[in-house]
Amino acid sequence: MFRTRSARRTTALIATAVAALVTGSAGPAAAHDDDGIRTAAELHSRDGAGAALAALRRDLRPYEDVRLALADGFVPVSECTESPAGGMGVHFLNPARAMAPLDATKPAILLYLPTSGGGYRLLGAEWFQADADQNLGTDDDRPSLWGQPFDGPMLGHEPGMPIHYDLHVWLYDANPAGVFAPWNPAVSC
Q: Which segment of the chain is annotated as a signal peptide (predicted)?
């Protein structure tokens, strides 16, 4: 993955946030029964992915205003990230969520694209989980959400970042490579 100096400057924050995940467990995602739309089974099955992602898109819509994301504890940890395969945008990490058990309704990272006016446009979200045994050769702890296995295990992208799994979900911008693909060829910095 291609990263910038800004991301390296925040490695300590990321390393601190994910260190707890190395020894933590990844329990099932918490379901929200407040509106009757989502259930634990729906959030973890491919059959319910469409409805679950629609609910997630609705639930994360307030974060279209980056000020609300900042107020809720998300902090930018990268400049706009891109590679020959496409872009990811700017990663905003919520350290508390990164240290909590995996929750399908609460991503640890929000993905934004800088706008020409100096603001940010919400693109999607990313879930992150450290690999329990820190061994690239095993994947028996690979998490999945909505029937979609996470990418990985992979080396950390910065010094101090553990071997991990991650899952990108493009909720607000179509991704020609797929809703769960890590890089979006339609995004450029």
A: 1-31
